[in-house]
Each structure stands twice: as C-alpha cells, then as structure tokens.
C-alpha cells in the first residue's frame, strides 16, 4: 500500500525452471502504489501486473516504464489503474482477475509497438479511458474492445496502425512506424528510438483533456497533446534510449548491475 517501486532493472524471469515469472506484480487489494521508471524484459508472465484495489485506496499508477519480450501481456491490469507514459513492445491487456474487472482505469500517452493487438480490453464493468496513445500493430488491431459493457470505454486522441475494433472513434491511422518514429521496428526488442519523427503524425495530434503533466523522459508537456510517451521537440531524443539496462533519468546516478550472483 502507498509504496513506490522505482528505477529497477527486472529481467530474465523466463528460465526453463520458472513456473510463473512475473516482472512486477501488485496483489489484489494493494492501492495507491507507483510503479515508475523500471525496465522489465524477458519475463514468463506479464512484465507488470496489477489487480483491483477492492476499495482500499486510490488507483495504482504505472508510468515511465519500458517493457519488452514477455511471454504474456507486457502490462496487465484488472481495475483501478493509471497507465501512462510507458514504452511497450508488446500488448497491454485490461481484463478481469479475482474480484476486479476493468473499471476506474486510464491508459494515456503510452507508445506501444506490437506484433498482435496493441491494447486488448475484456470484461468492462466501469469507466475506462484510452487516450493519446501511439499504438502500432503489425498484424492485429491497435485497440480491440472485446467484451463487457464497452460503451463505458472512452477512446480519444489515439494514433497508430492496425485499426480500431469494437468502437467507432477516437483513433486515426498514422504514417506507419517508419514515418512516425525516429528508428522503430517490429523486432520486439531494442535497439530502437521511438521518439516522434519530425513531420510524423504524432505531434499535437491528441486530445488536450487527457494530457499528462510529464512524458517518459520527465519532460513537462505544458498542455500540448503530443501522442505517445514522448513530448515532441525538433531534434534528437533528449533522454535515455531503450536498452537492456537501468533507465537513466536526468540527474540520476545509475548503479551497475550485480555480478557473480548464484541461486541457493
């Protein structure tokens, strides 16, 4: 409850002897937590997974994380979550688990590059907002609303590739990953640079109502509805580039990873 899980490097929980292998997991009833600026990759279960708060406090916040190469959803959440400014090479899934089902949730300003669907939503029972996300799918839908009371889902200001299934508005096709990002691919792992490309479809293309205060790099957005995890500026990405390492933020002292570790 009311904890911060920040600036961790979580990886390779997908070994042959691993039965579960989540990256970061919040159990049901945990509320008011922040999962921020973590790098999570090569997991067996979801990279980040949260359940319902069951009324114990405010929604959990998942922000500024980079996630790739999971054998399940990159991010999965049942209810009561704010998922913003993340870079996801994979799929975000909102679906029922234990006592919770999708409600009291906001997905805003994420950049998602997926082989299959970018965002899946099942079992909707309450308010869900999907806004200002850059979502590019190679072979699925960018956003797919699957089941439950999908009329409770607000879709607004999203740009991507793959189309929208289960709703009628709030999404437009961009120019493809080559046209909208500095150096993107569907490889599923870095290196790649998902900063918005000058002349692409992402700058100022979102909905002002859902603009977050800061972006993936910690840069103030100043009310500008640039779609995806980054606030656009002319020139190069001013922050950390995706890599299998700790995420470096301005002013951070980044630790070296441990060496010579053995399991008991």
Radius of gyration: 17 Å
Number of strands: 24
| Mean pLDDT value | 95
- The H/E string reads EEEEEEEEEEEEEEEEEEEEEEHEE
Q: What's the arrangement of strands in the largest beta sheet? A: 2-5-8-11-14-17-20-22
State the domain count.
Answer: 1
Main sheet record? 8 strands, parallel
Q: Strand percentage, roughly? A: 25-35%
**pLDDT < 50 stretches:** none
What is the element layout, followed by pairings?
Layout: E1 4-6, E2 9-13, E3 24-26, E4 34-36, E5 39-43, E6 48-50, E7 60-63, E8 66-70, E9 75-77, E10 81-84, E11 87-89, E12 92-94, E13 105-108, E14 111-114, E15 119-121, E16 128-131, E17 134-137, E18 143-145, E19 153-156, E20 158-161, E21 164-165, E22 171-173, H1 177-180, E23 181-183, E24 193-196
Parallel strand pairs: 1-4, 2-5, 3-6, 4-7, 5-8, 6-9, 7-10, 8-11, 9-12, 10-13, 11-14, 12-15, 13-16, 14-17, 15-18, 16-19, 17-20, 18-21, 20-22
Antiparallel strand pairs: 23-24
Question: Outline of this structure?
Answer:
By secondary structure, this protein is an all-beta fold. The protein has one helix and 24 strands.
Provide key terms for this protein:
264 residues, mainly beta, 8-stranded parallel beta sheet, 7-stranded parallel beta sheet, 24 strands, 2% helix, 33% strand, globular
Polypeptide structure, described:
The chain is mainly β. The protein has one domain (4-210). 2% of the residues lie in helices and 33% in strands. The chain has one helix at 177-180, and strands at 4-6, 9-13, 24-26, 34-36, 39-43, 48-50, 60-63, 66-70, 75-77, 81-84, 87-89, 92-94, 105-108, 111-114, 119-121, 128-131, 134-137, 143-145, 153-156, 158-161, 164-165, 171-173, 181-183, 193-196. The strands form 4 sheets. It has an 8-stranded parallel sheet, with no helix packed on it. A 7-stranded parallel sheet has the order 1-4-7-10-13-16-19, with no helix packed on it. The chain is globular, with a radius of gyration of 17 Å. It starts with a strand and ends in a 68-residue tail after the last strand.
């Amino acid at each position: 409850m009311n904890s911060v899980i920040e600036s961790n490097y979580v990886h390779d929980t997908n070994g042959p002897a691993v039965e579960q292998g989540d990256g970061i997991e919040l159990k049901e009833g945990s509320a008011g937590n922040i999962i921020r600026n973590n790098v999570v990759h090569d997991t067996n279960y979801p990279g980040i997974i949260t359940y319902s708060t069951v009324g114990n406090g405010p929604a959990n916040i998942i922000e500024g994380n980079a996630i790739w190469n999971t054998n399940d959803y990159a991010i999965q959440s049942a209810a009561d979550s704010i998922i913003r400014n993340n870079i996801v090479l994979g799929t975000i899934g909102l679906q029922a688990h234990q006592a919770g089902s999708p409600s009291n949730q906001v997905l805003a300003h994420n950049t998602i590059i997926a082989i299959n669907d970018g965002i899946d939503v099942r079992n909707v029972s309450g308010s869900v907002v999907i806004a200002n996300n850059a979502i590019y799918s190679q072979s699925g839908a960018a956003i797919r609303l699957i089941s439950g009371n999908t009329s409770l889902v607000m879709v607004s200001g999203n740009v991507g590739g793959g189309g929208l299934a289960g709703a009628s508005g709030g999404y437009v096709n961009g120019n493809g990953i080559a046209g909208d990002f500095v150096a993107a691919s569907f490889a599923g792992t870095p290196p790649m640079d998902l900063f918005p490309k000058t002349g692409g479809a992402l700058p100022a293309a979102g909905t002002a109502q859902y603009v977050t205060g800061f972006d993936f790099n910690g840069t103030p957005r100043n009310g500008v509805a640039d779609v995806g995890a980054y606030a656009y500026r002319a020139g190069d990405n001013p922050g950390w580039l995706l890599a299998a390492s700790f995420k470096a933020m301005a002013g951070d002292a980044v630790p070296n990873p441990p060496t010579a570790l053995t399991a008991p």
